[in-house]
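Aim 2, interim progress. The first record below pairs a target sequence with its C-alpha cells.
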Amino acid sequence: MGSVRSAGFCLENSLPFRGHDESEKSLYKGIFLSVLKLISVNNPDIGKYTLGKAKKNNKLTAPSIQKEIVDCYAKEVTKMICEEIKDDVFGLLVDESSDVSLKEQMAVVVRYVDKVGVLKENLTGVAHVRNTYSLTLKEAIVSLLADNHLSIDQIRGQGDDGASNMRGEFNGLKALILKDNPSAHYIHCFAHQLQLVIVAVAKKHDGVKEFYETLGMVVNTVGASCKRKDMMLEAKKESGK
C-alpha cells in the first residue's frame, strides 16, 4: 500500500521516481523512496513491511515493482477515458518514432467530446511496432483499440504527420483505415502543413530565407549564453514590450 501511494503521488505531480544514488548511505534516494519513507514514519503498520523493516527481496521498491504499479495506474486512467467514450465517435491522432533504445514506438491519441460538451485529447497508449509499414501500424491500432473496447468503426477523423507510410493514397495507413471505415476522414496535421509552407516559401523567396536563417542564428547565439539571455530580457524591459 505504501509503494502504491508513493507512486500515485509521483504520477499525480509529474515527478521523477528514481534518484542518482539509492544506496543506504545516500542522503537523497529519489522522490519515490523519500515519500515512501515519510509514509512509513507516519503509518507504523506500513513501516513494518517497507524499507528497513522488510526482507531485502520483499520491500516492493525495486524498479520492476515501480513499473508494474505505474502500468496499473496507466490502465486505470485509460479505462476511465474509454468508458467516457463508450459507443460514441472519436478522432484518432497517430505518430510514430524511435526512442532512445532504437525501438519503434507508436503513440495513439483519441480526440472526443465528453458528456458536458468539452473537447478532450487523451493518450490511450504507446505501442511498440516491429516496423513502420502501414499494415503493421494498422494492426497495432486495431489491437490497441480492441484492448480498450473501442473500434475502428467509431472513428470519424484521423490525423498524422503526413509521412508517406501514413497518408499514401493506396497503401498508406489513411487508406487502410478508410477501407474499413469510409467515415474516418483524413486531416493532415496543420502544424506540419505550416512547416511545409514555410520551407516552400523560403526556397523561392530570398527575403524569407534570410529572415529564418538570421532568426536561427539569433536563437542559437542567445540560447547558448546566460549573459546574452539577461541582455535580451533587459532590452525587452527597456523597450516596454
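The second target in this work package is listed in the same format:
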Amino acid sequence: MNYIPEDKLAVSLGQRIASERKLNNLSQKQLAEDICSQSMISSIEKGIYVPNAILLSRLCMRLNISMDNAVLSSYLEIEDMEGFNEKIKSLCNNHDYSGMLKYLDDSKIIDQLYKNQDFQTYYYYYAVATYQYLNDRRESLRLLNLAYQYTYSKGQKSFIPNEILILSVIAYIKVQSNDVTSGFKDFETVLKIIEDNRFSSYNENINILYYLYGVCLHETKQYRKSIKILNDGINWTTLHSSYYMLSDLFLALSKSYDSLNNKSEAHKAVLKSETIEDVFKQYAYKKD
C-alpha cells in the first residue's frame, strides 16, 4: 500500500512553519515563548512532530496567519480584482451557487475583464455555478470549453494549471452525464500531462484531478483503480507540501476500500481524513 501519511505531513507542515517564522524575523525561541519549548519548535520544523490543533492555532496567531491559511486552499483569481476574488471565495465556501450566478451576471464585472486568463476564470466560475445550481450539464460543458479556449493554442506542449483544472472538471461532468468513455479518456489525457511534467508550474488546483478521477472510478465500481488513483493523488499532494484536497482524497479512498470490504484500510483512511480536518480545518466535501 502507498500510505504516506504522518512523515510527509509532518515534514511539509514543518517547512511551512519554518518559512513563516523566518518571514516574521523570529527565532525559534521567540516563536516558542509562552507557547511551548524551543526544542518543540525545532522538532516541528524538522518534521519530527505534528502539533495538535491547539498548539498549531497558537503558532499561527504568532505568525500572523489564520488556521484556514496554515494550509492554502486554492481559488482561481483575477489579478487586480480583489473584491471579485474575495466575493467568489465567500460564495464558494458557502456553496451559494445561486448567489454566484447572480453576482457573475452583473455586467460591471465582465466589463472590467481584458486578459484572456481573466475571461477564463470568469467563465470557469460561471460553469461551476451553472452545474451546481441549475444542474445544466450541457451548458456547463459549453462554458468550460469556452473558458479553456481562452488560453489554449493548437499544438501547445505545456499547460497552465488553470487549463489542467478545467480539463479535469470537463472529464468529471462527462462521466456524470453518462459520457463515460469520453470522460475517462479525458482523465487519462490530463493524467498523462501531469506524469510527463507538461505543465508550466505547480498549483494546488492540480490536486483536484486525482480526486475527481478517483470519485468517478468509484462511482463506476472500478474500486481497485480508484484506490490506485487516490493513493497517487495523496502521494502527489504531500510530495508538493500541500494539504489541499487531502482530506477529500482520504475520505474517497475509504469509500473504495469499504466497497471492497476492506474495513481495516477504510477505517485508517477515515481517521486520516478526520485528523486533517481537525488539525488544519480542511474539511472534506460530504454529499448529503
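The longest helix spans residues 5-23. This observation will shape the mutagenesis plan for the next reporting period.
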